[in-house]
Structures are given as structure tokens and as C-alpha cells.
Amino acid sequence: MAEARAATAPGPADAVISARGLDLTFQTADGPVHALKGVDLDIRRGEFVSFIGPSGCGKTTFLRCIAGLETPTGGTLSVNGMTADEARRSRAYGYVFQAAGLYPWRTIGGNVRLPLEIMGFPRAERDERVARVLELVDLAGFEKKFPWQLSGGMQQRASIARALAFDADLLLMDEPFGALDEIVRDRLNEELLRLWDRTGKTIGFVTHSIPEAVYLSTRIVVMSPRPGRITDVIDSPLPRERPLDIRDSREFIEIAHRVREGLRAGHVDE
Amino acid sequence: MRSLVPVLVVVLGLLALWYAAVPVMNAAETLTRAERAGAVIDPPTAVERRDLSGLTLALRNPGLLGESWSLERPRLPAPHQVAAEIWATTWDEEVNGRRGIVQSGSFSNRSLIYHGGITLAATLSGFLIGSILGILLAVGIVHSRTMDLSVMPWAIVSQTVPIVALAPMIIVVLYSVGVQGLLPKAVISAYLSFFPVVVGMVKGLRAPERMDLDLMRTYSASRGQVFWKLRLPASVPYLFASLKIAIAASLVGAIVGELPVQKGGLGARMLAGSYYGQTVQIWSALFAAAVLAALLVWVIGWAERRTLRAMGVAG
Ligand SMILES: Nc1ncnc2c1ncn2[C@@H]1O[C@H](COP(=O)(O)OP(=O)(O)OP(=O)(O)O)[C@@H](O)[C@H]1O
Ligand SMILES: [Mg+2]
Fold this sequence. Notes:
The structure holds two protein chains of two kinds.
Chain A: H1 2-8, E1 15-28, E2 31-44, E3 48-52, H2 59-66, E4 74-79, E5 82-83, H3 84-89, E6 93-96, H4 108-118, H5 123-136, H6 152-164, E7 170-174, H7 182-199, E8 202-207, H8 210-216, E9 219-224, E10 229-235, H9 250-269
Parallel strand pairs in A: 3-8, 3-9, 6-7, 7-8
Antiparallel strand pairs in A: 1-2, 1-4, 4-5, 9-10
Helix pairs in contact in A: 4-5, 4-6, 5-6, 8-9
Chain B: H1 4-25, H2 27-36, H3 46-50, H4 54-60, H5 79-96, H6 101-104, H7 112-143, H8 145-160, H9 163-176, H10 182-205, H11 210-218, H12 223-258, H13 266-275, H14 279-310
């Protein structure tokens, strides 16, 4: 066990996530699919890391590996100094899926309460936490509504509240705002950034949008497909405090340009 | 209200068809009676008539069919005869009859209410046993690969055995160990009703999608928690759909179980009617069974609507 730990914790001391030579090949009916190949990455505590890349480059797969939902076929991966599966069992992270995925028979409040019930939070604390996170995502007053009574954007916010309810230090988000319109998206981006700033959580965030990645992240990981791999890692020099109009600044546009170059280079590679 | 019109049209159509069929089905008997009363039939002798179909006879003697709809023991009773019999053996018997509930304090054993009650008791107990058994089997099948592979084939085989052949055996076997009365009938009902529940529940418990299950994994939920908080609620619509089939099957089981025993119940009424050529009695028992079935299915449909609305699923 101690050996396994040592083997899975190769990164810097403050790395929450540390991947070395991570490989994942899916065996499908049409032959093997190389979803991830030789992925090396360290994510330190408190970082906001975005994953960007064309469809099918393995962003979701990598996030699912970190979450212990997928088992890599090669390389090492540690989360909080444990294997990903141990981290999952110690409830190390909150996960926001690409679709809201609320349970239709539970109210919004009931959906947010679900992880608290499962993790055995005391009853009084559950109510208090539900109220707090719903407030946080601007859904106070919708606790008793059922999912179908809410718009898609509200549902997605509820699913974020659900992932925040039990206050894990690590937040994994798979294109949480992908289906939303620009204006709602901007607002949610701002709120997410504020939440991150206030709580000091570590966030892994998958997106297709370059401005979103640049606006949110301290680091942007550019990936490319077939096989899925990291082609560039860009550190953002933007300050933690980011008003929306920072997107018109020269620095912002320069980083966005670099990300675009990175994406294009990934395409030329093929 | 607008949906009532097509229903009424269909009912009226069926009634018309039924009335039209009555003289054809009863032609031989009607004409024999008319002959006895002095009428001349075409063809005139019974021997000539023997091999002719009811339709031919009816068409050749259109003027002599008046009694078709009011025979004592018709081959096919007319709707109003059945209706009169149903009235006589329900309200009239219970309210005005010497053995009815009003005068004797208990239901008359000549009334359809009494016999319907016996069948209902067997149906409900069988339904309860069958549903619980079906749900338990489905839970086992979904959670254990061994059960998945071993139970399902047997459940399917069990339903290929004709129940009419099996019912007497079940009753005899249970009788030999001292069990009689309600329970053997309930066992037959349960035998018929567990199967749709197994099939529906297995489908329902497997209804959650991969993402719903993955969410539970991210919480490191136990199997029990996944069952109570995800699989079970997701299966509720499937459960109700299969319960509707199960309750109807239960009723059939109870009736079949009553045939060989002759200790009351709609099934016993039907068989007794056929022994004594009382077609009117058979038909009224048949209608009582149909009404009972409709009522039971409706009750489940009502419970379904209530439950789904409470769960917020039905918009
Ligand atoms: N369970 C699976 N079985 C087989 N192949 C899979 C599975 N999951 C993903 N893949 C394949 O792995 C590759 C990477 O998929 P992944 O979902 O990680 O892409 P992505 O970068 O998230 O794409 P998108 O931006 O469209 O969400 C794809 O080629 C996909 O077909
Ligand atoms: Mg994806």
C-alpha cells in the first residue's frame, strides 16, 4: 500500500492532482480508441485549471479519470495523495456533469440535499446547507420546485449547487455552461470566479470556449485528439480579481490568441 | 365529456350487433317453440332443419323469431335479459330478497355481490403476494448476476404452462397438506400476477441512465443508497404499468381457481351456470368479472396518478 502511494504521488508536495504518463484506451466494437495518451499534469491547491480542445480529445475522459469514474490503462494518477478511486471513496470532489442530470422526482431542494443525505450530514445542517448553496447560485425560493418547472440554465445552476453542497475542496466541472446563452453564461462565470476566490477551492473546468477558459483560469490546458493528449499548458498572468471587461484588455486578448494558436497547432498535427 | 361520444357509439354498435346475433344463435330453439304453438316452419320437419345453420333458419322464417329475445334458456341471451339478471342478483336480491343484506344482515349467496366479494378477496390477496414476490425477485435480479441468469428463464417457463391445467393441481396439492379456501386461489392469482411485475420492475430498476448512476458513484453511495434513492424512485412508473396488468391477471387466476372448487365466487357461478344451461347466469357473472376488472385497473390508475403527481413526475 505504501509503495502504491509512493508510486502514485510523484508530483510536487502541494499538488492536488498529479498525472504522469496517463494512458486510457477504450476497447470498443470498432477496435481500440486511444482516448488519452501520455498525459502529464500537476494541479496545485487553489488553482483554476481549464481544459480546452476539439470534441473527442479526451477532456471528459481525463476529468472522469480524476473522479475515479474511469480506470486508466497506463501511467499514474494521484488525487489528494491517494489513488483516484480512494479519493472518490473519501468524497474528495464535487462533480458537475455536462448535463444537469437532476433527479426528476426530487425537488430542487431535494436534489441538492441528495449528497448530504448520502454522506450522512445531520438533518439540521442539511437544510442550512441547501439554503446556503441555493442562495449562492441565485435559486433561493426555488427549493420546492421540480426540475421541469425550471429553465435549462436554472437546472444547471441547481446541479452546481448540488456539487457545492457538501463543500469538497476539489470541484470538477464538465462544460457546465455549454448549453447556456452568452448572457447567463457571463453571469455564471462571474459568480463561479467569485466563489473560487472566496473559498480557495481547486477547480478543474472543461470548456469549448476560449474566452471562458481565459477569463476563468489560472492555467489553461490545451488538448488535441487521436490520441487525446496535452499539447500546451498556458499560465495566465491575469490577476485573481477579474471584472467582466477584463476581456477587452490586451493581456486577455494575447492569452486568447495563444490558446487559439495552440488549438490550431493541435489540428495541424493530425 | 367529448370523449364519451366515441365510447357510447362503440357501446351502441356492440349492443346492436349483439341483438342481431340473438335470433341467429337461438333460431333452432325459437322455431321449435313456434312449431309447438302451431306455426308452419320452413323447412317443415325437424330432420330437415337439423343440418341447417342458424343464419339460414332465421332468414327463411323472419316472421317467427319474436321469442328469440325472451327465451328461458337461450343459447345466447339478449342484453336486456342479462341486465335484468344482473339487477335481480345484485340490488334486488340484497335489498328485497329474504337472504339479502337488508333482511338477513349478510350478503345473499345468490347475489353477484357476494360472489364478486369472494373473487375480489382471492384476487387482492393473490395480487398482494404476486406483486411483493415480483418486486423481490426483480430486486434480486438487478443486484445479483446469478439471480439474473437463473431466475428469469424459470419465470418465463412458468408462464408457458397453461394455468387451466395447473390450477387443479395446485388446489389438490394444497388440499392434501390441509390448505383450502382462499389461499389456493390466491396462490394461483399470485402465480399469474408476479410475472408482469418482475418484468416491469427489472426494467424500471435498470432505467437510471449512466450519468444518474455516475452521480451516485461520485458520492461513493452504497448499493442500498443507490437502490432507495435512485433505482426505486426511477422504477415507479414501470411498477404501476405492470401492476395494472398484474391485477387483471390476478382476477383471471382467482376465477380459474374457483372453477374446480365450487365454493362460491364468480368462477363458480360461471361453471354452475354452464352445468345447468343457465346462460343468462354465465353472462351476468362474466359481466360482473369485467366490471370488477375495470374497477381494479381504474383504482391502480388512480393510485398511479396520485403517486406520480406527488413525485412531481407527471406534469
Ligand atoms: N465509454 C467509452 N467507450 C468507448 N469510447 C469512449 C468512451 N468514452 C469516451 N470514448 C471515446 O474517447 C474519446 C474521448 O472522448 P471524450 O468524451 O473524453 O471527449 P471530449 O473531449 O470530452 O469531447 P466533447 O468535447 O465532445 O465532450 C472519444 O473518441 C470517444 O469516442
Ligand atoms: Mg466531453
